[in-house]
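Example record

The entry below shows one chain as it appears in the dataset: sequence first, then structure tokens.
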Amino acid sequence: MELDCEGCAGCCIDWRPLDPAAAGSDRTGPRPPLDDAYDLVPLTRDEVARFVDDGLGDALIPRLFRPAERDDSVRIDGVDLAAVDDRPVFVVGLRKPPKPVAPIGTDEPRWLDACAFLDPTTLQCRIHDTDRYPRTCSSYPGHNLELGAETECERVEAAGGGDRLLDDEPPDDLSAPPFGPQALGATVFAYPDPAELDGAVARLRDGEATADDRARFAGAAVGSRPGSLSVNRDRMAEAWDSAREADSWLGTSIREWTERADADGDRVALGADARDRLVREVEDDAGAPGTPGWD
């Protein structure tokens, strides 16, 4: 597997506003997500715990699912959710605020939802090649290639984004997929107390989740035991508190970008130099790690 990622960021950005026909979908199974985030990266339990322990719990957001046919379900806030033993199942991913980015051959920046760790100027991940870099990101698009599914790289190519997928052989050391029988308690979690979620489910559906809403799911993920539905309540409570109290450069930048952004896909009303200064002010000056540049 060999990729050319320079100037692309197709798997890190919601580029549906740019080209709805060419952009794909991350709806990889029969259970529609409750939210509309594009290419949400499912994190492992250990990755969630690492973000929380590092004070980056404000980077995390849960994803709940509507039930597929013959699924168990639980109804909260008037919404039917996929469940196991009456516990709603969820994954935890990275938040995607609007950012001023110019991906995949666009000639000027647009306001597009992008991964919280994506540098809008260099279009590189700020945690690439670090121990925080998610397994799903490091292995992408290996699982797509193994299953013969279309990749974001190919969608970018079809939209006129140049040659991106240079070698389509999946890697030999490909990790287990994030979904499957082995995923319960490892990347797919079950919330132990559905009654606690009154109000939170509606806010997640409407894109209005609070810090506490997001933190409670991060806590449940950290407290989960791989291969089971059991949750260590002490570990859950500790992680919940830590995630709720997180106040990192990520949380600050997400609030700033959300307040400054225009509508999805709108052109950024700034020149290149002003846009770069704004990125430095909102992210770099707040403590964001730099990016290494392209070889």
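Notes for this example: The chain has one domain: 2-283. The longest helix spans residues 211-223.
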